[in-house]
Amino acid sequence: MTTGFTMTIAGEAVAGASMYDVLDPADETIAGRAPVCSPEQLDQAVTAARAALSGWSATPFEERRGLVLAVADAVEAQLEPLKHLLTREQGKSLDDAAGEILGFGYWLRGTASLSLPETVNEDSAERLSVTRRIPLGVVGAIVPWNYPVGNAGFKLAPALLAGNTVVWKPSPFTPLVSLRVGEILRDVLPPGVLNVVSGGAELGPRMTAHPGIDMISYTGSTRTGRQVMAGAAPTLTRVTLELGGNDPAIVLPDVDVEAVAEKLFWGAFANSGQVCLAIKRLYIHRDVYEPLKRAMVAYAATVRTGPGTEAGVRLGPVQNRPQYDRVLDLLHDSRAHGHTFALGGPPQDQHQIQDENGGRPGYFVPLTLVDNPPEDSRIVQEEQFGPVLPLLPFDDIEDAVTRANAGEYGLGASVWSADPEAALAVGQRLDAGTVWINEVQHLTPDVTFAGHKQSGFGSESGSEGLLEFTTPRTITVRRGGAGTAPLPTT
């Protein structure tokens, strides 16, 4: 067990009002103990961020850019201990954990290359009018458990670059790396610019409703996103919400089945399916349905699952008990309704789960392909967020598009074809914030990412994502001084 975790408030180490156990999802042992932030300590963190705001926002943009780059350097310098800690608390493989830490640095560097716009509205003999973007103030960054460091980069980079100060709250399931990053950055950023607090389910609502926080940037479920928006309403706190998805992929009949099977597998099962933009419904043209199903089953047999610390493991457990129980509930619902499993399926009981994983405990769900369940079944209609994928045949592209667009979500989608132009014609009809052709989950810090319908509110990344952390201020100067008579009107 790793010990010694503290919160970061005003650049100082702060012990919690109490401590709680953080479990390793691979074996249910204690990975570490995290501090619980009291209401008074949250007030202290917000006060520290508010006190640091005037100095940080007045810091020249280029200097802030340099400090954002310094944050990336400092975190990457601790790659080895951070990746091991991330695997212990999150469950992903060490290689994937390293990729997430390095992705944090990549995101900060990419975001630091952006600039804030300045618009000259009028520059005449009579007046000068200029609109600039200024920081919103104190940002509450609420980060999920599937990518606790990587997703934080989506929020910290633009917030800090734009001149805001931050109170960062990681998920109670994965707080350890975030707390450690806070410790690392105490010597990089001025005190109070970045504060890191941890705690249970009660801490998020306290932040959302806190009158000293000017913006909440939240990533998580749509259900909780609605609560965040409601909590922010009384104070008109700005919100950016990156929420759930039930992302469809459509496979046209001209694909190279063997070539596309591996890409589709990882598009669905990366991080054991715990990716907001994972393929969660796979619509396959009937001409290639059976061969593609067989190819995906065959490829899955080559992928080793288990504790992320073990050599050769590619996929780890579901991260926490509530999500594990939810995924198993979906699988048992499929079995109860007579669905066919091309691969995997629900274990009969915990003993079977342990037998399938060498006698180990942990939140392991078998890699599962559900073979042509009904469109109205739970496994199709609900976001599973686990290593489970329904395969759905179609004959007519109109039918596939209609089914893909159905439902409350509109986060991501993809279309796969040997003919990119044909795939593009289909992709342009999909109701999603991001549509990929012949790839999926490709994101960069200079490209805007947003959800449609119940999948989000506002934008992340790119210039639009940076602007989310600002508000416009127009200054108009009447030339000639206060004593100058106005020009006559005609």
Name the structural class.
alpha/beta
Distinct helical segment count: 16
Number of strand elements: 24
How much helical structure, as a percent, in the residues? 25-40%
Distance between the termini: 79 Å
pLDDT averaged over residues: 95
Radius of gyration: 24 Å
Describe the strand arrangement of the main beta sheet, using strand numbers: 14-15-16-13-12-18-19
Residue share in β-strands: 15-25%
Major sheet details: 7 strands, mixed
Low-confidence stretches: none
- Give the overall silhouette: globular
Strand and helix layout:
Blueprint: E1 7-9, E2 12-14, E3 18-23, E4 30-36, H1 39-58, H2 61-76, H3 79-90, H4 94-112, E5 118-123, E6 127-135, E7 138-142, H5 150-161, E8 165-169, H6 176-184, E9 194-196, H7 203-208, E10 215-219, H8 222-232, E11 238-242, E12 248-251, H9 257-269, E13 281-285, H10 286-300, H11 321-336, E14 340-343, H12 350-356, E15 368-371, H13 378-381, E16 388-394, H14 397-405, E17 409-410, E18 412-416, H15 420-427, E19 434-437, E20 449-450, E21 452-453, E22 456-457, E23 459-460, H16 462-467, E24 470-478
Parallel strand pairs: 7-8, 7-10, 8-9, 10-11, 12-13, 12-18, 13-16, 15-16, 18-19
Antiparallel strand pairs: 1-2, 3-4, 5-6, 6-24, 11-22, 14-15, 17-21, 20-23
Helix pairs in contact: 2-4, 3-4, 3-6, 4-5, 9-10
